[in-house]
Structure formats: C-alpha cells, structure tokens
Prior knowledge:
It contains twelve helices and no strands. It is mainly alpha-helical. The longest helix has 28 residues, at 198-225.
Amino acid sequence: MNNSDLVEILIRAVEEADSSDRLLDAVQELAAAGIEEAVPTLIAALGYNNPGAAVAAVDGLIAIGEVAVPPLLELIDDYNYGARAWALRALAGIGDVRALDTLLEAAKNDFSLSVRRAAARGLGTLRWHQVPSEKVESVQTQVLEALLLISQDPEWVVRYAAVTSLETLAVAVAVTSPDQALRITNQLQQMLDTDADLGVRTRVKFAQEKIQQQQHQEQQHQEVFAPKRKLEDTDVTEVPYRGRGRR
C-alpha cells in the first residue's frame, strides 16, 4: 500500500467517525502517518470541538513541518476562535517566520485570550535563521515591540506567554543587540515588581534566571575562545649578542 492509498483510508476514517472516541483515534492515526496530503484534514480537525483530536492534529501538523505552514495560514478559521487558537499553536510549534504577520496581528488584536496566548507564545519560537541577515535586527525589534505591548495584556495567561517569549528573544539578541536585551530585562523587572498575578511573577523570575545563566555561559565562552594576549615581557632571558668569537 502506497502513501496515497494509506492517507485516503485514514482521511475517510476521520470523516466517517461517529463518536468522539472514534474521531480521536482516527485523527491520532492520521497525524502519526506524517503525510503531507493529510494537512487539510488535520487542519479541519482543529475545529471539531474535540480537544483531544485538536491536540493530536496540532502534533501531526508540527511533525509534518514547514510544508504545513501555507495551508495553515490560508485555512485559519476567522469565525471559530477555538480553531484559530489551535492553528496558531501549530504555527508556534513549527516556528516558521512566514507566520510572523499572522502571529503579530493575533497577539495584539484578537478578541480571544486563547488566540492571543497562542500567538504570543509563537513569537518566541520563530526560527531566526530563516530571516535574511540584513533584516534580522529590524524583525526582532518588531517582535520586541509587540511583546512589550502584549506583556500588559489584561489576561494573565497572555502576559505569562509574553514572558516566555521575552525570555527566548533575550537569549537570541544577547550578543547581537545588547540594547534590545536591556529593554527586555528592564521590562521583566518591571513585571516582577508590579504584575498582580503570582504565576506571572514566578515565571518572570524563572526567565530572569535563565537569561542570567545564558549570559554567564556566553561570558565563559568568550573567555575561553578570546584571542590570547601577547605577553609584553618574556620569562626567557635573552643572551646578549657578543659578535663572532675568534676561532
């Protein structure tokens, strides 16, 4: 049996499932197949009002990877906020920068807290190596500005997600953009001092510790691989030149 025959059977099982348990089993099997042709059906499963099936579909889409990004962006359900949140979780798991604009818009403006949370988390999983080197700093600045705004969201779960992304961004820019790293550490300290939610403050402290640990490791790395300074004085005593001796 080739992949086309297999995916057809698995898709039919999803479409014909007549109970929540059977739907869950069918989506799990389809997701486990890891076949690109399954992407539209897995995306459709995000809106079936079956959390277990949605989790399986998200895992399957993440495993399939970058080829799932264009259909995910195209088929995101603007009317079903639950399906939107699951789709953004899949995009976050893949980390493809083609989802940047969608993540930014959702994180800043979507009415659903679950969508904003998923998008905020996704801003911290972007694969920066996919961005052209001459654009990395400007894109990271764009993400930072969004996260600084999101970190003031009225919902604590969204602020919590923003902290996780600020942490990963701080690590990413620690060497290349120290000014951005400083803005992040200042924002985290402000949240630690003022955020009303204990869970958010606890997550901030964890982020601060991780950032400090990364900075310490980077410092050690630089010390180990930095060029050795030339010694100005030598321990070897030079023998005075006496000219040619007589034979």
